[in-house]
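Q: Given only this backbone (252 positions), what sequence would you predict?
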């Protein structure tokens, strides 16, 4: 639909060559139509985990802010939302206001990958002027939330390492992500197989780069030293199993 819109309504077929923009725009279309319905029921204890967020918080890929009412805004000093899809920003700003964040919400037009996030954080002023090369300076965020987003970030291993670097020592990461089916342990072979089949049939292409077969739990574990690593599977036997929980970066 997005491709047809670009050709027949925008009459600007050259936009089809800008693949990243095309990807964000088509995902934004999908999310604008379905995001709210897809947020009514969230997996596992994520609502409770979000309600405890406090201090300076970074939310990766907030979309149009459907989950913002689940935070307790009185505990939050400032929240940065790193959302690369420009068409979702008006909704994000509207929902941040509606959820009572006022000036405490700072939307950033960037992705969670260091090469996009770090310059945006510098521009916003929360990172100092040194270290613009890619890796963040340590210790600026009390909490980082990744809710239904790490399936779509580029080079997830490095991106997650970058996010770890941005957490203050003792800081908390809240995770709610769908992952590769753990068929050798808690999962199911048929579900793992269906992930493979869906992927071959174009899941990632049709869902804006979302990957079904990511081992996000392993990337998180290997990102750095954690003093607490509490992730639970929700729907481990399903084709779209989630890991939900909280991790705490080891104190200095
Ligand atoms: C499934 S939606 C989830 C939105 C929100 N976190 C929620 O759970 O309601 C995924 C979001 O991640 C965004 N996204 C895609 N690629 C991203 C990236 N590289 N970095 C950060 N966010 C990204 C999408 O634009 C979209 O808003």
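A: Predicted residues:
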């Amino acid at each position: 639909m997005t491709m047809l819109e670009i050709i027949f309504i925008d009459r600007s077929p050259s936009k089809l060559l800008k693949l990243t923009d095309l990807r964000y725009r088509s995902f934004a279309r999908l999310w604008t139509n379905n995001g709210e319905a897809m947020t009514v029921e969230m997996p596992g204890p994520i609502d409770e985990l979000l309600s405890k967020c406090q201090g300076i918080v970074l939310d990766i890929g907030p979309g149009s802010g459907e989950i913002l009412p689940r935070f307790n805004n009185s505990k939050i000093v400032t929240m940065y939302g790193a959302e690369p899809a420009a068409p979702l920003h008006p909704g994000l700003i509207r929902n941040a206001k509606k959820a009572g964040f006022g000036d405490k919400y700072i939307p950033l037009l960037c992705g969670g990958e260091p090469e996009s996030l770090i310059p945006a954080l510098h521009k916003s002023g929360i990172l100092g002027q040194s270290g613009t090369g890619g890796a963040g300076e340590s210790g600026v965020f009390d909490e980082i939330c990744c809710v239904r987003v790490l399936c779509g970030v580029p080079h997830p291993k490095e991106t997650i390492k970058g996010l770890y670097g941005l957490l203050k020592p003792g800081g908390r990461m809240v995770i709610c992500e769908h992952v590769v089916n753990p068929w050798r342990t808690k999962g199911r072979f048929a579900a793992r197989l269906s992930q493979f089949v869906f992927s071959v049939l174009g899941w990632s292409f049709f869902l804006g780069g979302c990957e079904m077969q990511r081992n996000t739990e392993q990337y998180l574990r290997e990102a750095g030293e954690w003093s607490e690593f509490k992730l639970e599977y929700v729907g481990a036997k399903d084709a779209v199993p989630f890991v939900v929980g909280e991790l705490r970066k080891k104190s200095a």
